[in-house]
Structures are given as C-alpha cells and as structure tokens.
Amino acid sequence: VEHFSGRTAFVTGGAGGFGVEFARLFLAEGMNVVLADIEQDALDAAAARLGEQLRVRAVLCDTADRASLAKAADEAIAAFGRIHLVCNNAGVGGLSGGVEEISDPQWDWVMAINLMGVVHGISIFLPHMRAHGEGGWFLNTASMAGMLGQPQMGPYCASKAAVVGISESLYFELKGSNIGVTVLCPGFAKTGIARTDRLMPPALAAEAKASAAGAVRAAQVSHAVATGLEPSEVAARAFAGVRDGDLYVFTHPDMKPMIDHRMQRIAKAWDKAIAFKR
Ligand SMILES: NC(=O)c1ccc[n+]([C@@H]2O[C@H](COP(=O)([O-])OP(=O)(O)OC[C@H]3O[C@@H](n4cnc5c(N)ncnc54)[C@H](O)[C@@H]3O)[C@@H](O)[C@H]2O)c1
Question: What is the pLDDT of residue 196?
C-alpha cells in the first residue's frame, strides 16, 4: 500500500483502545476516518478526543448484526464516497471458564461479534471496494489467542483462530487484485477488553461469577491488560504492516517462544505422520 492521504478508513470498535489509535494514525496520514461502535458515549468521547470534525464521522452499529453494519457502511459511503481501508477490529473478551462450563448463548455471543462481525465487514465492503476500483485493504484484529489456545478462554481463542483462518482465506482469494489483507495478532495491551462484561447481555453477564478457574483466569487477564503494551504502539505496528502489505502482524516479541514451542510440537507430529506404518 503506497498512499493513504485523501482515502477513507472505516474502523469497527473505533471508540475503543486500538480503534481510536488506528483513527489517530490515519488522520495524521491525511485520511478520513469513520468510527463505528456499539457504545454511543464512548463514540462521542472518541470523536471529541480526535477533534478533526471534518474528517471524522462516528456511526453507531452492531457488527454482529449484518443489517446494522450495512447501514453504517451506507452512512460512511454517503459521508466520504469511497472506503479504502476497513479495520474489522470490534471484539469482546467473553467469559473466562472451562469449555464444559460455557453456555451455548455465551459461545454464540462471542462468535457473533468476534467472527461474524469480521465476516460481515468483509462481505459488506469487498463488493464496494471492487466496484470503486481504487484499491483497498482489510486490517482484521485477531489476537495471539488465535495463534495458540489458552485455558479458560475457549470461545475467545476459537473466535480469534477463526479470524486468522478467514484472513488467510481472503488473502488467497484476493491474490493478484489491488485489495489485500493484514491480520493483527497482538498480545495484551491497555484497553477496555478486560471489561467486556459491560457489553454482555444481562443474562450472560450473570454467568460470569460461576467458574472458580474462570475467575482466576479473568484476574490474570485483567492484570495482563493493565500492564500490557500501549494501544498506540500496537496500532503503529499494525499500520507499518499494512504499509508493507504484510499478511501477519505480531506485536509482542516476548511471546515468540510460545509459538516456537507450538511449531515444534507440530513438526514432531509431522515426523510421526511421515514415519507411520500400519
Ligand atoms: N487489548 C488486548 O489486550 C487485546 C489483545 C489482542 C486482541 N485484542 C482485540 O483487539 C480488538 C479491539 O479491542 P480493544 O482491546 O481495543 O478493546 P476495547 O474494549 O477497548 O475496544 C473494543 C471496542 O469494540 C466495541 N464493540 C464491541 N462489540 C461491538 C459490536 N458488536 N459492534 C460494534 N462495536 C463493538 C466496543 O464498544 C469497544 O469500543 C478486539 O477484537 C480484541 O479482541 C485485544
């Protein structure tokens, strides 16, 4: 990706930690930015903080709901004409707890936002990008949780592995076109992610206290988020990856040994497959 000035970015979760920092970077590049979020107060605060009224629009939407995101996309297109960079970034942490403890509605809620929100963002904006022909990019926020499963975080890890998977699918589908994809896999950063109970339907939030092991994990996550990277650093790293046209972006070098370990286990499994005799 070579030039950004005068182009328009659409950022889901734009009122939150990474989303606002993406917006800040894009504005500094001379882009227009649409912040799309489910939290009206946070949206207003984010737009006010960014201050560039002419080049910023805030739209309320729920990315889990295709019609709601499509309406937000229409508003964005009405405001700025063409959308070039779509950050499918809205996401929730979900409950901590063992796989056997998490209810189906809890799974559905996390997957609807973390996976289907990304699916909707791609399927709504890709035809628009193809039609305007000026080139485009998807920046999908997954997580290190999508690279390695963690205990007591089944739905979140599954949803983020799914975001990696769909980003890879899209990468191959778009090869040779002027539209591309980057999947961002951060570790912990200081955002509102540990407080996603605030967005949970009340019946699901009531489940939150049920699991002892889940409570331990939730406390660990809160601590890791509070002592994590600045979201501005993660955003800067992600934007550098988009500029370079990278498929994968990582932000936490200290987590590489965990992934190396996983790769080694996979390599050993391959050795066994190769050596296997019936
Ligand atoms: N902070 C971390 O440690 C971390 C690490 C890895 C990945 N992530 C991912 O980063 C992304 C951004 O989260 P964040 O860390 O900035 O947290 P955050 O809670 O500060 O921001 C997320 C934003 O998404 C919005 N949102 C949630 N559900 C939505 C929906 N259905 N429709 C529209 N907007 C919705 C929230 O209102 C919030 O403003 C998420 O996908 C998250 O899973 C975060």
Answer: 87
Q: How many other C-beta atoms lie within 10 A of the C-beta of residue 160?
A: 28
Q: How far is the CA of 13 from the centre of ligand 1 (A)?
A: 6
**pTM score:** 0.97
* Beta partners for residue 139, in sequence order: 87, 182
Q: How many helices (H) and strands (E) does the chain have?
A: 10, 7
CB atoms inside a 10 Å sphere around CB 12: 31
Q: What is the mean pLDDT of the chain?
A: 95
Strand segments (E) across the chain: 8-12, 32-37, 56-60, 85-88, 136-141, 179-185, 248-250
Where residue 94 falls among pLDDT bands split at 50, 70, 90?
confident
- Higher model confidence: residue 3 or residue 150? 150
Nearest to 228 by CA among 254, 200, 197, 263: 254
The amino acid present at 157, given as its one-letter code, is: C
Q: Report whether residue 140 contacts ligand 1, using a CB cutoff of 6 Å.
A: no
Residue bearing the CA closest to ligand 1, atom 30: 62
| Other Cβ atoms closer than 10 A to 249 | 21
Residues 10-14, mean pLDDT to the nearest whole number? 98
Q: What is the largest CA-CA distance in the chain?
A: 69
pLDDT at 149 over 80: yes
Q: Catalytic: 171?
A: no
| Residue 226 DSSP symbol | H
Q: Is 116 in the pocket of ligand 1 (CB under 6 A)?
A: no
pLDDT of residue 197: 87
